[in-house]
Write a structure and sequence with these properties.
Oligomer: single chain
Number of helices: 10
Function: Catalyzes the oxidation of 5,10-methylenetetrahydrofolate to 5,10-methenyltetrahydrofolate and then the hydrolysis of 5,10-methenyltetrahydrofolate to 10-formyltetrahydrofolate.
Protein name: Bifunctional protein FolD
Pfam families: THF_DHG_CYH, THF_DHG_CYH_C
Pathway: One-carbon metabolism; tetrahydrofolate interconversion
Shape: globular
Distance between the termini: 48 Å
Subunit structure: Homodimer.
Helix content: 40-55%
Length: 278
């Protein structure tokens, strides 16, 4: 029988550990503040931003939301980020992905100060993650590792197969697992014989952005399956029902990786606030 990796309970423990830290900061007049930037009116992105804001407020943190018009230029967006960089009351900056196609997203990400890059989107943040000393690794990869640790699932010596190579998910989680002494195979849309490669994995990370893409027949008996996908209809990148019972442990969607991602974002913001308060 598969162990259901309950992300909601892992997230709750992370938030519980943050409460006393936030209280101490507040007593010194420092309220941890996360600024979220949303460009345009994408309803899914609006939902994500609202969830992050609500999570901040429930913990006594400040959520500062900046909502920009769909026609905002790259230059205008970068200027908003520059102002937030210079605002000492803002400790973390999150640019909600994706931005409209006419914006140079990478230029916008690079404008975020490394001290406030709490979602690990800058190239410097990525490089620090690769070397194993990043202040704030990308939140979803960090959440995946946090779930493995919370359930005491071993990483060292295991063969991890990551399906997806995005710079804020597939690539950084591969590096984080490698730094924990896993042997990592990165797969993508051009990978030949993908199902055979996945079948060899002790740990499978699905981050391909396709609903129910990973099939039950691809999973080795007892493998750990971490589904980082979220698609229309609240389904992940893994065929959950087909993999349930084959996998030794598996994250559901929703209530798997998602809640831990948000909790990790809050943790990084509190970390940044504490560093500013030193």
């Amino acid at each position: 029988m598969s162990i259901i990796l309950d992300g909601a309970s892992v997230a709750a423990r992370i938030k519980e550990q943050l409460e006393s830290r936030i209280r101490r900061l507040t007593e010194r007049g420092v309220i941890p503040c996360l600024a979220t930037i949303l460009v345009g009116d994408d309803p899914v992105s609006e939902t994500y931003v609202r969830m992050k804001g609500n999570a901040c407020r429930r913990l006594g943190m400040e959520s500062r939301r900046i909502h920009l018009e769909p026609g905002t230029t790259t230059e205008q967006l970068v200027e908003v980020i520059r102002q937030l960089n210079e605002d000492s009351t803002v400790h973390g900056i999150l640019l909600q992905h994706p931005v409209p196609h006419h914006i140079d997203e990478r230029a916008a990400f690079e404008a975020i100060s490394i001290e406030k890059d709490v979602d690990g989107v800058t190239t410097l943040g990525f490089a620090q993650t690769a070397f194993g000393f990043g202040l704030y690794p990308s939140c979803t990869p960090a959440a995946i590792v946090a779930i493995l640790d919370a359930y005491q699932l071993p990483i060292e010596g295991k063969h991890a197969v990551v399906i997806g190579r995005s710079p804020i998910l597939g690539k950084p989680v591969s590096l984080m697992l490698l730094n924990r002494n896993a042997t990592v195979t990165i797969c993508h849309s051009k990978t030949n014989q993908l199902s055979d490669i996945v079948l060899s994995a002790d740990i499978v990370v699905a981050a391909v952005g396709k609903p129910r893409f990973v099939q039950g027949s691809w999973i080795k008996q007892g493998a750990v399956v971490l589904d980082a996908g979220y698609n229309q209809g609240s389904v992940g990148d893994v065929d959950y029902e087909a993999c349930l019972g084959i996998a030794g442990a598996i994250t559901p969607v929703p209530a798997g990786v998602g809640p831990v991602t948000i909790a990790t974002l809050l943790k990084h913001t509190v970390d940044a606030a504490e560093r500013c308060d030193l």
